[in-house]
């Protein structure tokens, strides 16, 4: 497959899953993600964190990822299910 | 774009709380309790909620200081990004708040150096979760996910105030009883207190409180004069150090016989549910029992209960079962009463979990050097048993389940993987404290609890149907 222009390492993906921006279940099923999904997740995190919404893993976003915070998910379970429950899982 | 309600609420507005870590590291317990009390007052000042400190594990909101992995599938990360977490209202650990003991907690106001984290600020946020609030994306809201210190005379922002009043109603206001008529500055100067400072005139009136929940029983008249909340004693004037009286212990808590609330979320049993006493030497009733463990061994399903097991082959339940486990697998402990979990490894060895030990069998014979402690697998010291184990057909990885958590086991390394434990809620619909799990020849995963079981959809990571099916009918042909 063509190399993704957007490289998001595991720690960032774990962060996005832990706080509900990506489906937690992917942690277990290892379902692959499209680049667009990663960008959407970053955009939502940037909106929540009130930083420029770029869909890129830029400097501002990396700083936000470092900031101390509460461990409870930002995107409620219920919403995650609605959002991804309908998504057709790619094998 | 504003507050978010999780869905669970407490069935009463009069809640109890208790600090259960008696000696948080390097912190004065009395000062910690004072900050926690201040944080709770942020919410009670803006709603009908009342909070009473008690000294009991049965309080509604239990507060702990923990570090790293602490038995709930949401480990802390040392001093760093994760400060605390809390559980939404509910049974068991519902409402509890955990603070990362490795953080530098400030028990006074913020210090200029920016080092350290205000316990008051984080506790006020976490108690929002304990009361049923999710995070809010409104910057400056108390329920905003990222840490933001609070000013000394902090007032609850509107976003959070409207949220908590939607859940528990607004506090009766003094002037609410006075007939409302236009406020005439000259005529009525000083007639009643000035409107609440954070409610600017343009502020739309707060939504009418939801239909009042069933009238909470009038608070039982305190048997003794209620004490004002504890405040740290004034520093001594004279310079010679005086032995400071330890703060009076909070009153002992007599559990209140509160009628069971009508609409509590399904009970979440406490993590280490004591197993029911086991009648000795009585064969289990094939058509009326739960199971201790289930595993596919050599393509047959073995179901274990107490000291017995059944075999289900291609023709269904084999005749003459249940049989004694010890007749099939030798060298089990003489005093063993049941197995906790069983699974067949990819190399065809059979692993039994009994209490804090595991036994590896080559067919019927215990391999040399076993049993070994669970800690050899990288499982925590505090774990007293494994509830279930399986090799998951979806990814051929080995999983161990216990209480509210699960681990993924790396067969090559012989240890559980680093990013575990995780919370069982990942296996959507299964809940906590499962009895058994296995992957059947149909490629599907089956979770068992009590006398029921769920078929699990590996792709969607959730049960096919919320309602469990009856095990004895489907598996034992009853």
Describe the structure.
The complex is a heterodimer of chains A (91) and B (478). Chain A has 91 residues and is mainly alpha-helical. Chain A is built from five helices and one strand; from the N terminus they run ααααβα. The radius of gyration of chain A is 13 Å and the shape is globular. The two termini of chain A are 15 Å apart. Mean pLDDT of chain A is 82; it is low at 86-91. By secondary structure, chain B is of the alpha+beta class. Chain B is built from five helices and 27 strands. Chain B has helices at residues 29-44, 119-130, 158-168, 185-188, 471-476, and strands at residues 14-19, 50-53, 61-66, 82-86, 97-100, 105-106, 117-118, 293-297, 300-305, 308-313, 316-317, 323-324, 341-344, 350-354, 357-362, 365-366, 372-373, 388-392, 397-402, 405-410, 415-416, 422-423, 436-439, 445-449, 452-457, 462-463, 469-470. Chain B has a five-stranded mixed β-sheet, with helices on one face. In chain B, a hairpin with a 4-residue loop joins β18 and β19 (397-402). In chain B, α1 packs across α2 (119-130). The two termini of chain B are 54 Å apart. Classes of the chains: A mainly alpha (91), B alpha+beta (478). The A-B interface holds A 14, 19, 24-25, 27-30, 47-50, 64-74, 76-78, 81, 85, 89 and B 4, 6-7, 74, 76, 80-86, 103, 117, 122, 125-126, 129, 134-135, 137, 139, 145-147, 394-395, 408, 419, 422, 425-426, 428, 458-462.
Counted beta strands of chain A: 1
Major beta-sheet overview of chain B: 5 strands, mixed
Strand content of chain B: 15-25%
Distance between the termini of chain A: 15 Å
